[in-house]
């Protein structure tokens, strides 16, 4: 599990700003903070400033998340939020608010309301059932169709036609997105942190 480079504190740490994006960069394992579990219609989000998990909304339709969902710490995407990640093939429910070590296998390029909002695709690093999954292609074409369908239509009853999947790309593209978002965090968000 990721070590936190911080002295013991009597105050709760905001892991979004304490943990690095990678637990093991050479192995492609990111630190993932879980917000939503597979098969949920509830959308939870960490409050960026404080680190508490809050119910952002209850989904407008019966579509449920086909993947677990969350964020990668110390990243800042083009939608002015931390970089999203999904965990494919979760077999046991994950607790929202938990930290998971996740192995990067690709990226889903995504646009929401005209803003880029890419999703890093991962599997649980410590789940032996996932050792054979080395790329998005290994998840199969139906996984891609189901995931694309969900993300293009989950907001249809509230804001129809605002979400568009722009394609699935490989690990190298995913790592580049993480690198760009980590640099954007350092330039745009880190200066806002209180000492």
Describe the structure.
It is a single chain. The chain has about 200 residues and is an alpha+beta fold. The protein has a single domain (about 15-190), classed as Inorganic pyrophosphatase (Inorganic Pyrophosphatase, Alpha-Beta Complex). Strands 2-5-6-9-7 form a five-stranded mixed barrel. The protein has a two-stranded antiparallel sheet with strand order 3-4. A hairpin with a 4-residue loop joins strand 1 (about 20-25) and strand 2. The protein is built from three helices and ten strands; from the N terminus they run αβββββββββαβα. It has helices at about 15-20, 140-155, 170-190; strands at about 20-25, 30-35, 40-45, 55-60, 70, 85, 100-110, 115, 120-125, 165-170.
CATH H-level homologous superfamily name? Inorganic pyrophosphatase
Which regions are unreliable across 5 or more consecutive residues at pLDDT < 50?
Answer: none
Strand elements, count: 10
Tell me roughly what share of residues is in helical segments: 10-25%
Which keywords apply here?
five-stranded mixed barrel; 10 strands; two-stranded antiparallel sheet; Inorganic Pyrophosphatase; alpha+beta; 195 residues
